[in-house]
Automatic annotation (TrEMBL):
Source organism of this protein record: Frischella japonica
Domain HTH gntR-type: from-to ranges: 7-75
One Pfam family hit: GntR
Protein name (Swiss-Prot/TrEMBL): GntR family transcriptional regulator
Keyword Amino-acid biosynthesis set for record: no
InterPro entries reported in the protein's UniProt record: Bact_HTH_transcr_reg (IPR050679), Chorismate_lyase_/UTRA_dom_sf (IPR028978), Tscrpt_reg_HTH_GntR (IPR000524), UTRA (IPR011663), WH-like_DNA-bd_sf (IPR036388), WH_DNA-bd_sf (IPR036390)
Keywords: DNA-binding, Transcription, Transcription regulation
CDD domains, A to Z: WHTH_GntR (cd07377)
């Protein structure tokens, strides 16, 4: 099948396999042909096949499974919110994905000690509790629980956060998010989180605590985000500190 041209053989095979994945010929969850079959199809050596496959594994399109073979998987979404202040919708749109939000809960609640400490308010002060399940296409990506101080944000319950962006709303209310502090843990999904994110209980999740500050470093948003570990990866950008 391989046609002699200036393209190295492994790159030609890599691109051909990728085309078959993207066209749906090899669908998500399907095993691709075994290495010995691919050597016959492409008329190349097994090391050449392995090089092409490994490249697609590195890119997240394929995954090697012990005793099964090589399976097609969805490439991980590279989340950049670790170093960029940007709404979820904006980031997904920029990546060519279709964002969707399902609001599970939006109500007035009372701050426990953890929320009060982060938002610099008194325990039992009134807060908004906003719980959103956020999708890319039809896949649930992240479960986000957000707490906001009621005193600074009157009439927030009138906002429909299935379509409105939180950071845009805060900006319009003169509380733009200017700085964010995040803490990352990797935990196992509990039963409720697993059900909502469509994963198995005890599957790994990325667990972020985020504290958003507005003008004068006033804490205005405290969020707990639970990202699926199987289809998300995170980009961290570091700069050398010049003294």
């Amino acid at each position: 099948m391989y046609k002699s041209n200036k393209t190295p053989r492994h790159l030609f095979i890599q691109q051909d396999l990728l085309n078959r994945i993207q066209s749906g010929e090899y669908s998500e969850g399907q095993l691709i042909p075994k290495e010995n079959e691919l050597t016959e199809i492409y008329q190349v050596s097994r090391p050449t096949i392995r090089q092409a496959i490994q490249s697609l594994v590195n890119q997240g399109y394929l995954e090697r499974r012990k005793k099964r073979g090589t399976v097609v998987c969805q490439p991980k979404i590279k989340q950049e919110f670790t170093h960029v202040i940007e709404s979820y919708d904006s980031e997904m749109n920029r990546k060519g994905l279709i964002p969707r939000t399902h609001v599970l809960t939006f109500k007035i609640d009372r701050a426990n000690s953890e929320i009060a400490t982060n938002l610099n308010i008194a325990q039992n002060d009134e807060i908004y509790k906003l719980v959103r399940l956020r999708y890319a296409g039809n896949k649930p990506i992240v479960l986000v629980t957000t707490y906001l101080p009621l005193t600074h944000l009157p009439n927030l319950l009138n906002i429909d956060f299935t379509s409105e962006r939180l950071y845009e709303v805060l900006k319009k209310m003169q509380f733009p998010i200017l700085q964010i502090r995040r803490k990352l843990d990797v935990l196992k999904a509990d039963e409720t989180t697993a059900h909502l994110l469509d994963i198995d209980e005890n599957d790994p999740i990325f667990y972020f605590h985020s504290l958003g500050f507005t003008k004068n470093r006033l804490p205005i948003e405290y969020s707990i985000s639970k990202y699926r570990g199987d289809i998300n990866s995170f980009v961290f950008e570091l700069n050398n500190k010049v003294e």
